[in-house]
């Protein structure tokens, strides 16, 4: 009888452990096989830095257009200066050595201009007349003269326009030359930085310098193998005399 009671107790203990005891929970998380090791949290890769693509613009060749080349020369630095004697008086009274034709050069005509309007209205080659008049007023126009010379190298005009100061004369000359550049076939900078020499589409040769408070320009169809050089030499000679910088 005792043996039977012991057997019943053992059976009850076995059944309790299998069905209702506090055994460790062996149920795997949803979606994970039983007995597998939980995987580590997924890692996030840092976003790649944006790649900068360097582009190179096509190389720009220097312009061969005469007008563009002329304009680039105008914008280069100009040499500041003072002048004595007064350029208008010196040119009008034929007191400047070094003009084209040397001793054969002599005055045949003098035309004076008291106002910007009187000068511009008698200069048909000016493309932007209103801008020129406005600039002359702004730069303190004082007086102007066109002196015609005859010489062994031909007839030519020397124009002298006087302004308030050297900087004003340079400012006016830049406006003048920007206009003139639209009608050139060739232009070059004078070596002393005082101005330009150029050949127009009509075949005439011109040189422009600023000496002190005045712009001085030479215009003519010079006889010789190199009219541009004749005009350039004359302009630089006159500039040197008026500014006392002749070698």
Polypeptide structure, described:
With 247 residues, this protein is an alpha+beta fold. The chain has helices at 2-19, 66-74, 87-92, 116-120, 129-138, 166-180, 227-242, and strands at 106-113, 143-150, 156-162, 184-189, 195-200, 205-211, 214-220. It has a seven-stranded antiparallel sheet with strand order 1-2-3-7-6-5-4, with helices on both faces. The N and C termini lie far apart (150 Å). Residues 1-38 have low confidence and may be disordered.
Report the β-strand fraction as a percent range: 15-25%
How large, in whole angstroms, is the Cα Rg? 47 Å
Low-confidence stretches: 1-38
Number of helices: 7
The major beta sheet can be summarized as:
7 strands, antiparallel
The total of beta strands comes to: 7
Give the topology string: H per helix, E per strand.
Answer: HHHEHHEEHEEEEH
Distance between the termini: 150 Å
Quaternary state of the chains:
single chain
User: Which sequence of strands runs across the widest sheet?
Assistant: 1-2-3-7-6-5-4
Helix content: 25-40%
Structural class: alpha+beta
Q: Per the principal axes of the C-alpha atoms, what is the gross shape? A: globular
- The overall pLDDT average reads 83
């Amino acid at each position: 009888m005792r043996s039977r009671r012991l057997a019943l107790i053992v059976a009850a203990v076995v059944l309790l452990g299998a069905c209702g005891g506090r055994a460790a929970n062996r149920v795997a998380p949803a979606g994970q096989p039983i007995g597998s090791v939980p995987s580590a949290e997924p890692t996030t890769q840092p976003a790649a830095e944006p790649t900068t693509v360097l582009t190179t613009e096509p190389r720009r060749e220097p312009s061969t257009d005469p007008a563009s080349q002329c304009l680039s020369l105008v914008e280069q630095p100009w040499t500041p200066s003072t002048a004595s004697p007064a350029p208008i008086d010196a040119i009008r009274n034929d007191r400047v050595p070094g003009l084209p034709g040397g001793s054969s050069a002599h005055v045949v005509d003098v035309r004076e201009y008291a106002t910007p309007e009187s000068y511009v209205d008698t200069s048909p080659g000016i493309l932007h007349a209103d801008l020129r008049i406005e600039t002359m007023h702004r730069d303190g126009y004082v007086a102007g003269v066109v002196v015609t010379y005859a010489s062994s190298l031909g007839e030519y005009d020397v124009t002298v326009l006087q302004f308030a100061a050297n900087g004003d004369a340079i400012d006016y000359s830049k406006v003048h030359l920007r206009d003139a550049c639209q009608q050139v076939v060739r232009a070059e900078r004078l070596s002393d930085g005082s101005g330009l020499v150029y050949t127009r589409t009509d075949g005439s040769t011109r040189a422009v310098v600023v000496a002190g408070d005045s712009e001085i320009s030479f215009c003519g169809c010079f006889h010789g193998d190199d009219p541009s050089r004749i005009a350039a030499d004359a302009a630089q000679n006159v500039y040197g005399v008026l500014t006392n910088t002749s070698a």
